[in-house]
Amino acid sequence: MASTGGSLSDLSKIPVLAAVCLAALVLPLSFSGGAVATPAIGRDLGGGAVALNWITNAFMLTFGSFVMAAGALADQFGRKRLFTMGVAFFSMVSLALSFAPSVLVLDIMRAVQGLAAAAALSGGSAALAQEFEEHARAKAFSLLGTTFGVGLAFGPLLAGFLIETFGWRAVFLSSTVIGLLALVFGVPRMRETRDPGATGLDWSGTITFTGALTLFTFGVIQAPESGWASPWVIALLAGAVVMLIAFIGIETRVARPMLDLSLFRYPQFVGVQVLPIATCCCYVVLLVVLPLRFIGIDRHSEFEAGLLMLSLSAPMLVVPFLAATLTRWIGASTISGVGLLVAAAGLIWLGRIDPSGDSRAVVMPMLLIGLGTGLPWGLMDGLSLSVVPKERAGMATGIFSTTRVAGEGIALAVVSAILAGLMQASLRDLLPNATEAMSAGLSEAAQRLATGDLRHASEILPMASQSLLRKSYGAAFERLLHILAAITVLSALAIFGFLGRTPVQAANPDEARPLSVS
């Protein structure tokens, strides 16, 4: 169905825009809020390090796996319908989460919540594109991106306030309230649209893609506990490789692939996919790892941790707009690459801060990381469209969104495993006389420390003082940030290389539209 147009000044469109923005607000709140709530959940419900890791990873896994499939379902069955079902189901699951009796039940429901979030995001974005045209559409999506930034910036602070005032269950209950507001005020005024040419869901592609992500995430999260040489971990990772190969084979053969691999022939398109991977490593994973450190290791309250997190995420409210303005004079690749280098410098600086020292010392390096990440963050979505021929823009957006969301889940799982491994090595360095019988205890204590559970780590290793455990954490955390900084620098070099090439042209010469990215 063709769009009837509309501007942001059209009062009939405002409730629709508000509904989609409310849904967009609740998604980053669920991501960051779950991370801040993890220590409180552990104190209340117990659970091992692996189970507590799944509180955030389960949500990100299903969210990232289902984004592309949800887009296809929205085209086939209707954007409004999928958005409505996604938000309604998300609200119901959020309500159920506030009554979760155990960590296992909570993990399972977080996975279901991720599915609903993917449906809400895909349906809402597609519906918004049908409500507005040209400049109004660009402004609407800019506001949508700003809403995401607000959720990331204030999510930890809101979660901290709710946990201290009402308990961790209030974090999930707040998502229910926001979701219901979106349903009541926006959905009745939203038009139903669908793609008449939609052929349905690519089931084989969806199953193999989801299987690859699931097996890989399970393997990486299980590795610190079972060991990387464990037959169980090896089987999971090997299964992920098999599923990935099968997915690639399927997508190269189907008539309407869920993921058109031919787009990777464009060097600039490859460069754009590096951007969300880089921002995952230098920014997104910190939204989960830092609250665990502030609350569990540094002994801050949840609200104090939320205030500290503003240093990292507040720049996202301003810097992306600045980056868009700078493109009038400076190429997008230069802005993005320099931003990543600035973020890498912030990571190195942050790694030098002693966890047992003055907590205010982390503010400036976190601001630097947020400032640097905000530069490519404000350009990524537009670049994903502009570096491919115009007729391929829809598929390019889908691939970019999947890379972004799935990459966040993968990066989080990998970083958690790396931190646990570095923690175990750090403990061995500080406890060189540990006996063979203590090895299992070291491994479990390392996993506990990686999730910010200093109390249980102390119980597992009674011979180690809390100051010694904090010192071990500080050494491991610094090494982790060095690794993330190295990845960020390499990503910056890749951006300079790939996005600095000659702009692509549309297949039809009459529709050519060069992009100045160098």
Would you kindly provide a written description of the structure presented here, covering whatever features stand out?
The chain starts with 13 loop residues before the first helix and ends in a 20-residue tail after the last helix. With 518 residues, the protein is mainly α. The N terminus and C terminus are likely disordered. The radius of gyration is 23 Å and the shape is globular. Helix 1 runs antiparallel to helix 6 and helix 10 runs antiparallel to helix 11.
What oligomeric state is this? Answer: single chain
Q: Note the beta-strand portion.
A: under 5%
**Percentage of residues in helical conformation:** over 70%
Number of DSSP-assigned strands: 0
Task: Compute the number of helices.
Answer: 19
Structural class: mainly alpha
Low-confidence stretches: 1-5, 502-516
Tags for this model:
globular; 19 helices; 518 residues; mainly alpha; disordered N terminus
Please sum up the structure shown.
The protein is mainly α and 518 residues long. The chain has helices at residues 14-45, 49-77, 79-97, 103-131, 134-166, 169-185, 203-226, 231-251, 267-284, 286-297, 302-313, 319-326, 332-351, 363-377, 380-386, 393-430, 439-450, 454-460, 466-498. The longest helix has 38 residues, at 393-430.
